[in-house]
Amino acid sequence: MLNLNQNTISAANSASQYDAGSALAREAERVYAEGLGKMTYDNPNQQQAAILDRRLAEWRELVEKAYNDIIAKRAAWMPWTVCGPARYNSAKNSAKADRQMEAAAEWDRKMDAFIENTMRMLNDAIPLDEMLAQYRSGKRRDAISSDDPLAVEKLTARLDGMRERHEKRKQRNAWWRKHGTMKGCPDLSAESAAQIDAAIAADPLYKVPYAPYTMQNANAEMKRISERLQTIQAQRQQAAALPDGKADEEHSGFIVERRPADGRVNIAFDGKPDEDARAILKGEGFHWSPRAKVWTRKLTPNAERALCHIVDALQKLPAYAPQDAADPAEGDVPTLEPDEFAARVAQL
Question: pTM for this one?
Fold first, then answer.
């Protein structure tokens, strides 16, 4: 059982008509068990087993923390149907109810992200050649982010595997058209060939082992991946061609970080930027990365142009104005050394 605060559960039960605290406690147990079911990996290696042990312990702590907070917020307010309408502060209790719902939604987001990150960590904790073999075989069908440092390798492996399977399907269709049976097809066992023959015989619309629309869909998907691969490679070549000496730029209150190896450009602030600064960043295509704690965008020539606009716009805000030495005030006379004063007088 999860370690949930029994006092707040009892308080939440008292503040409701249907034992809300106990209901939330049962929900916590269900969410915890569902998370355990999702965070599994067949035949984990030593590194993956260590990751699983650590993350499952952290998962328990996260669910306990989340539901202790949600239950406490539920116990903090009481509907008028329980306490009665006399002198009931509707606005105050409505605000408390809203806070509970907002907290529950935020905890849901965090728990979903935890499971997603755990599976990503497990998937990445294997040798590179084994990982690429899984993409090539089609065993791994997860989305590949353009920001992934191994995006080119993963997409190439996936595309190579699709092409190999597509060529096999073409050969099997050709064998069927020539022989009217799959028996004797070089890359099929006798059992598999018999199953395909039986499926075609059972469906009069089944003219070949692989229908034309499946072949067309496969061609379209291979074309899409090929074009995406070319785009990522072109972007990385452009990023690598940036002039030397433009890695980091320090400004008043923020730093511009170029990371060609990751294909990203980041802006890191000393603290949370104000609303005006955030509007400038979002308007130029930057978004906040909670993991890296920076505002980020793909490193492209367009991003370089956007950076110029951002830096100029930010420096016009008081919080990020350049800290240059102030000009002498009007009417002030700069102090000169005696030799410099004498030289200037001699020029008159």
Answer: 0.56
**Residue 147: which of 37, 265, 29, 57 has the closest Cα?**
265
**pLDDT, tens only, 195-213:** 999 988 888 777 889 989 9
Cα–Cα distance measured from residue 38 to residue 339, given in angstroms and rounded to the nearest whole number: 81
Q: What is the pLDDT of residues 116-155, one digit of tens each?
A: 999 988 988 888 898 899 999 998 888 888 777 788 999 9
What's the pLDDT score for residue 332? Answer: 44
R_g of the chain, CA atoms, integer Å = 32
The span from the CA of 173 to the CA of 209, in Å, is: 6
Q: How far is CA 258 from CA 233, 265, 296, 297, in A?
A: 17, 4, 10, 10
Q: Which residues contact 59 (CB under 8 A, 6 or more apart)?
A: 32, 35, 36, 39, 114, 115, 118
Contact 258, 265 (CB under 8 A): yes
pLDDT tens digits along 291-323: 888 999 987 778 888 888 999 999 999 888 886
Secondary structure (DSSP) of 110-174: HHHHHHHHHHHHHHHSS-HHHHHHHHHHT-------TT-TTHHHHHHHHHHHHHHHHHHHHHHHH
Of 149, 168, 281, nearest to 214 by C-alpha is: 168
Helix H segments across the chain?
6-14, 20-38, 46-75, 80-83, 90-124, 128-137, 151-179, 190-202, 212-240, 275-283, 301-315, 338-346
